[in-house]
Amino acid sequence: MRRIEIAKVLAQPALDDTITVMGWVRAFRGNRFIALNDGSTPHTLQIVLDAEKIDETIIKKIKFHACLSITGQLVASQGAGQAVEILAESIEVLGECNPEDGYMMQPKVQTMEFLRTNAHFRMRTNTFSSVFRLRHAIAFAVHKFYNDRGFFYIHTPIITGSDAEGAGEMFHVTTLDTNSPPRLEDGSVDYTQDFFGKATNLTVSGQLQGEIAALALGKIYTFGPTFRAENSNTPRHLAEFWMIEPEVAFNDIVDNMDLAEEFTKYLINYCLENHLADLELLDKRLAEEQNALPKDKRRAMGLIEQLRFVVDNAFERITYTEAVEILMKSKPYKEKKFEFPVEWGSDLQSEHERYLVEKEFKKPVIVRNYPKEIKAFYMRLNDDDKTVAAMDVLFPGIGEVIGGSQREDRHDLLVERIKAIGIAEEELWWYLQLRKFGGAPHAGFGLGFERMVQFITGMSNIRDVIAFPRTPGNAEF
Amino acid sequence: MRRIEIAKVLAQPALDDTITVMGWVRAFRGNRFIALNDGSTPHTLQIVLDAEKIDETIIKKIKFHACLSITGQLVASQGAGQAVEILAESIEVLGECNPEDGYMMQPKVQTMEFLRTNAHFRMRTNTFSSVFRLRHAIAFAVHKFYNDRGFFYIHTPIITGSDAEGAGEMFHVTTLDTNSPPRLEDGSVDYTQDFFGKATNLTVSGQLQGEIAALALGKIYTFGPTFRAENSNTPRHLAEFWMIEPEVAFNDIVDNMDLAEEFTKYLINYCLENHLADLELLDKRLAEEQNALPKDKRRAMGLIEQLRFVVDNAFERITYTEAVEILMKSKPYKEKKFEFPVEWGSDLQSEHERYLVEKEFKKPVIVRNYPKEIKAFYMRLNDDDKTVAAMDVLFPGIGEVIGGSQREDRHDLLVERIKAIGIAEEELWWYLQLRKFGGAPHAGFGLGFERMVQFITGMSNIRDVIAFPRTPGNAEF
């Protein structure tokens, strides 16, 4: 008999039909009621078992996370809590799951750290199966958003010969024998013998290559893995994470802000409209986590409440200069509670961003027009000659989710900037040529995918929104 | 004035409106007719220019691939070849493009190799803009196909600590100083001081981690970059390419074949239904390329003809044993024209696969149940104890596009296989535990994305279907 997925059984119950379902045991109560889940939905299907009909040796194997195939009649449930249930006629054990054989998962709340070290089973928990269904939904919404608007998805290279992207420390990629690499006469490693004939790294951003595509196809986006070899062991950093980078020919910084706001709201709305049951489960989880905290450490809003608040309100848009002014008038500034200095020319620190978002405006904030000295070389110089058309989108709780800019499209100004920061022109020959031949104004940004998944799922550690996190000292699985 | 994209202008022409368009010059005839393209469509928009209205210095800058902003009235075209055109009232040059400044692209057919070395401009050509719009369409169709069917998209790790995947040579990832890495007492490199505390590589497949997700969420797929450090300088190989790997709990090898056939047909149909203009352009290109070949080297069908043929016919399904029998009865075998031996136990070579697909069946062929010795350790042993439930999907012209299998879900048999091929059990501790605790039958496959893009676009070199190809000696851009 062909099995039916539990999501379908619950959505369109064919009452009185005899059906087969397969899945993992989430609970088994009183030797009679199995809660079965097959991953297709956060809900479980109740199976009612008549101990006289089912062999005792099988009943003994019905344990937490054992995998079963069950055939029986689907009927309206007699009990509260579910609309339908299956009266089991036969049960087959597809995969046993015995604590005495060493199974480490238990039907109780286990620490996040424990679940991370057992990432091969954590997706079987309520929390993580919801997180990863939502992660899928957000990824799909990314593609749908851009496809519906005529953007083209570009795969930018993962291995790059350029180290001019300037966004942080990079991982080195090589096929040379690390123990005894070929060497030049001066003793240095001979990278001409490496796979690509030169030293290569893992990309930190697909932006520069994305600009190539935008200046031909008009509107493009990337969605791929990016890497930072930084020794940041924090709940906000991963060595390997996914980034979405739209790039649009003919857009200026205002179009860019509009796109960022429309895009992030769309992702949130998509989840609210299509995955509310998963969000409700995570909303409850977060509320319990918050209840364990002292009152002054708790979030101002519940998960779903905050998501609705963000989509229902316009993002605040201010300049960097205005941000500095607001901060200088703030209570924590006057009371010297900020750890880092506030002064025109210094970058905004996390504590400053949080003040703006969580205290001053109580909603997402887009800060634009930063001092050129603290931003990347490719950002377009404003007419004041002091600031660049950069923008950061700051979200409550997680801080910066988006960084972007209008790009410097004037060849000579870009050459000047590159020289000033000491990058060789040859390194960026093609990037400069894009300005020399058929260039156009254009703008884009990068959204840290995991940050967005964190915001939507309410998970406080970024390691809990990616299936197999890569962090300093950890490349397990 | 807000610009309108050319795709929209052509699809819903608001006749007599004054509008602004922006894009790149594809042609400029008789100082009067500009063919403008902005990437949103393969079609160009005709701009009619009245030399008396437009400044001469501007007209001089209207060159191949220069970027223009044009405002004017949209009217029904007087000429043949287009329905509408714009009567230019003003023209702004956004980006000049002068051959005398070194612009290398020319309005004539240029070699593929030349365009590869100028990949930062090749997307501005008819051929490549169509290829990359189709690449986007196929990628979107992948996500839509799986999302519509309740699969969840999983990001499997790019950096992996495991080298047990066994699919070929790997790239090494490190942050150690290659010139003088830290060493142990015995002189070997001390990888405990590397970023992840051990030696790491770039993934060759997300399958093993995908199985983790499938055994919790039921139906999943991956779509990410994979890597092969093989010195294969051929039109069929890339060092960095994208792969799609669905994995489904409770599926057997027959379900797996059904999924592979439904999936590949869906991708082709999606392009036929949504991007016919791009396909028509590439169909014409291919026909011209074919005409330059001697008759016996030409394809049997045109591009679109072949795409329709593939979606309209059931794939042939045979066993490996049947394939060998067919080959042994074949003319080239009898005439000793095959380079490689045909005998039960040897892997099928490209020449054999091509015979089956192009001569014997003249359509896609799925070969299954290969000898266990020539297939990967994780494939499920059949009851004959000689073959495994493996399958390859072979396509006309490009050969293998899909390789997959039902996975060995029996713990003890898997341990036996791992030992037999010399992998340490500890290497795969979590993979083995998936069989020990709540395991289930499951199956999946990998589709080489670029191979599929090749098939749909008719491009003969795989380097021409990825924006920035990575091959031995080449990591430019």
TrEMBL record, chains A, B:
One of its GO terms (cellular component) is cytoplasm. PROSITE patterns: AA_TRNA_LIGASE_II. Its EC number is 6.1.1.22. Signal peptide: none annotated. One of its GO terms (biological process) is asparaginyl-tRNA aminoacylation. Pfam families: tRNA-synt_2, tRNA_anti-codon. Residues 132-469 form the Aminoacyl-transfer RNA synthetases class-II family profile domain. It is found in: Cytoplasm. One of its GO terms (molecular function) is ATP binding. The keyword Nucleus does not apply. Keywords: Aminoacyl-tRNA synthetase, ATP-binding, Cytoplasm, Ligase, Nucleotide-binding, Protein biosynthesis. It catalyses: tRNA(Asn) + L-asparagine + ATP = L-asparaginyl-tRNA(Asn) + AMP + diphosphate + H(+). InterPro entries: Aa-tRNA-synt_II, aa-tRNA-synth_II, aa-tRNA-synth_II/BPL/LPL, Asn-tRNA-ligase, Asp/Asn-tRNA-synth_IIb, NA-bd_OB-fold, NA-bd_OB_tRNA. Belongs to the class-II aminoacyl-tRNA synthetase family. NCBIfam families: asnS (TIGR00457), PRK03932.1 (NF003037). Homodimer. This is Asparagine--tRNA ligase. It comes from Haliscomenobacter hydrossis (strain ATCC 27775 / DSM 1100 / LMG 10767 / O).
